[in-house]
Description:
By secondary structure, this protein is mainly α. Helices cover 63% and strands 3% of the residues.
Amino acid sequence: MEGGQALDSASRPLFAILPCPMARDSGSNVQIAFPQRRHPRKRPDSRRQRSTANGPWEKILAAVRQCDWGRVCLAIITVVALSALLSLHLLPDRVQVRAGDISSVDVRARFTVQYIDKERTAALRDAASERVEPVYESMPYASADADETVQDIVDYLRRERSAPSPSPTHLAVELRQHLGVVVGTSSLLQPLLKDPAAGYHIDQLERVLRDSAHDALREDIRNDSPADLQRAYTIGDGRLQTSLIARDYLPAATALLHAVVRPNRIYDAEKTQWARDTARRSVAPVYSQIFAGDPVIRRGELVTPATIDKLHALGLQNPGLERGMVISVILLVGIMVAVVCLYLARHHRSVFRSTKMLVLLSLIANLSILGLKLADTLMGMRLSGPQFGYAGMLAVASAGMLIAALVNTRVALVVSTLLAAQSGLILGYDVRFPVMTLLSTLVALFAVSDIRSRSDLLRATVILSITNLLLTGIVGRIEGDAWSDIGRAGLWAVVSGGLAVGIFSLGAALFERMFGITTHLGLLELCDPNRRLLQEFCQVAPGTYTHSVMVGNLAVAAAEAIGADALLCRVGAYYHDLGKMRRAEFFVENQGGGDNAHDKLNPSLSALVVTAHVKDGLEIAEQEKLPPVVKAFITEHHGTSLIRYFYHQHTCSDCPEDDGPGLEQHFRYGGPKPQSRETAILMLADGVEAASRTLERPTLGRIEDLVDKIINNQLQDGQLDECDLTLRDLRGIRNAFVHLLGGMLHNRIEYPEVLRQNATRQDKTGTPDKPSDETVSLPETKAPDDVGDHSSVAA
């Protein structure tokens, strides 16, 4: 027993045999209460089954509730619109001609098609039908009918002979009315009635007629073949000639034999037609093929049935859409839209989350497809296959450039590739145009990726036109086109390149205002110094305007060094201090050496006046309808930085009772902090330019120290925490600032006349004057350890 307990103890885990504070002492035996692992209570099976049954439906309902139905509806509308436009392009124009007309238009096949050559097929089927023999129904009782007719003729003959006055005419009438036997001339029957010994001869006549009719009916006598009947008569007549009947009976016997012998095979029209139809159906249709680009009919040519067959095959006579083709188009467009959505959701979430951007993408894609139809129909331009291909190149290149300028270059690359594939589906001409469209669009995206001036539009036009011309020549030679055709196509290629850039320029100006998007073209308009707002800015606050221009130069140099948007930085620099127009006299750069307005204000009120220029600038921007990207520079160029000059002035004053935990916040800007690389660059450029004015005898080392101190202060203050600048970017920005400031703050030599004047003044006053072109700094600003918001320090 004890051994079993020992074995049991040994088999327990280590923690199970150690003392435990939860142990209870009951007499001499010590019982240790070990914590036991609790198993979760099992729920009833019914509840488990209920939860299992409801789980998938709950997930589906949750997914439905979380679904953004606005984007879903937009995607559905896009698919429907693009499918309708593509189907409209696939629906050909009707060519109204009939066989025998003279064509007034040139018609070419837009796609390769195989069709039934009705003319050749009909000829083969007619030949097969003609080879079918007519079908005849055999008359199995023809001989019996002949015997019966012979018997009746003989009976009527004997009855007439027994008449008081036999008449051949009466006999002929009786035979015709009752037996349908027609004798050419009734006088032929006269020997049969007048011969006294005719009784024996009539019996002999009956036998000969029977035998002759049998011989004649052994051959096929078709009721529609007089030759067959004549051949039967010949056989019967031969038998009569060799018989032993009296020679004077022979004409009457011949006439009666011809009346008795009748066709024994009757033509069956229904069975014959069925046999011929079967033979026609057995002939397989003859197929012909017309290739894309082949001429169907030329202007002035006669329209033949073969031409009509080709037009029918191409759907040009009665244009229509098959249900299967429409469904296929919808599925294809749906896949393309899904690919774009997945790409945006994964790589460009900001675009995917913006309904405005998604609407813009959908609108541009639909307009690019619609433009082809408008050019081909509404404008009355009857475009041939190659011309339609160059129109497709124009439309896709324009759409790609618009998306690159308004949305994103990478998004434009993806959408343009899909549009090029769709253009191949629309054109159906050959593989050259989808390839040329894609390459032309890629070059177009490159050409408009960095537009900084109006001349860049001309440069983009030249680049795109030359590219289209080269592609036309290269692909044309690969396809074996004649030089004359390549020359005409080259003209279309150049025109399409120029028109594409023109449409891009107009479309960008239109969509900028519709969707509140700012492109480089719009930025070029904003940085024009002749704009009314900038002219007013220069007149009201000339010092601040000059400061803004210098900040713009610094920001552009830094942006180019790290690959940011330099043009946006320049525009943001021009407008970031617009708010100083309302209280220009409170900023030292506008005081012109006069009294400082802040001398009459306490530091707290001065801080409010300085920080108000951000709010005032935003109000002016709203009045002037400046784009949001420019407003971001106004609100973010100070971030939440501290107005150090007035803060230190306040803390050094004799009002310690005002100090508190929220004092520093009172002397900070309201923010937000810079959210983009461009606004962060402007913040640093603004501080560097303002602080550089305080440098005496600027040297390269002092400039480097100043720039390093400003950047470090902004980093330590957390002003750059919400933007995408990296340490490598900051190093590039620092080097760009140092290089440009070294050129701006270079030392100037003193001219001899100035030196003599200074020497004279020094002799009179004992203090040398500074040259007229040397900057004079305020003594209050010489505080390098407190470098922060230098525009406010200067105030």
